[in-house]
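Notes from the 1:1 (GR / supervisor)

We went over the backlog. Supervisor wanted to see one worked example end to end before approving the batch request, so GR pasted a single chain during the call. The sequence is below; no edits were made to it. Supervisor asked that the structure be written out right there so they could see what the output format looks like.
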Amino acid sequence: MMQKHIPVMLNEVISSLAPTSGKVYVDATFGNGGYSEAILKKADCKVVAIDRDPNVCARADEFKKTYGKRFDFCRGCFADIDSLVNENVDGIVFDIGVSSMQLDEADRGFSYAKEAKLDMRMSCQGVSAFDLVNKLSEKELADLIYNYGEERKSRQIASKIVEARKTKPIQTTTELADIVHQVLYKKNGAPDPATRTFQALRIAVNDELAQLEQGLKNGLKILREGGKMVVVTFHSLEDRIVKNFFAQNTSKKIHVSRYGNNKNVSKFAFAECSKAIVPSAEEIAQNSRAHSAKLRYATKSMEVNDDE
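Structure output shown during the call:
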């Protein structure tokens, strides 16, 4: 059995989702099953889990043996949630980004702290971080590291990468981290300066931002009226997408005339959305991955009027 990981902001996720017996929920990022397990234990409900990582299938099989018809698993990207899940649901949870399980598996190449071949593919298929680091032009690398890692020294890092690969391909995570450290020196007690470069490559390899945008839109299609969409993000690029999506699709508090024609008032998909919720100091102290987490949720409108 896989090592047990405690999902980030678990209590806040369950509180926001409010699982109820007889209803159906989607764990769009199954991982090691922490959210799925908590939902299934909270109420006599059904969970449909999604994950693109083939390495989680054994864990999903364990859940199926334990929970039977109350649990289903779909292998695929959550961007395709509306085609993977063939029923309307009462709640959806997204935990965006790399999982603790993937970071802990050194051979997946997600972590700069563990030597492994550069990979970072959540699906174990397609273009890898090795391909990007060794094949992109200097400008393409600089743009990628700046746009997805928000790294101000992206041009200098890209230049060092291109210089290094002239001698031989950059094969491992530690080789790449050492190159970044030539531009940004490590300081005791401070976050590793390679973090932003690794984040940028991971996002690019897995097309994470586009997947998130599509997953939110398609999740809305299968969410029942009154259903909750709950999203946990870990950096500003993700949070901005969620914040804007909820804001653009949530009804504003406006005056409704008792005499006028108000049939367009309920045109928005969400009746309400939360502000960002952050983890407690106690959780951050126990789980370093939680320090940058933000949770937002929205409730689907009970009635959406599409008339002009």
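Supervisor's comment: Residues 208-222 form the longest helix (15 residues).
Batch request approved.
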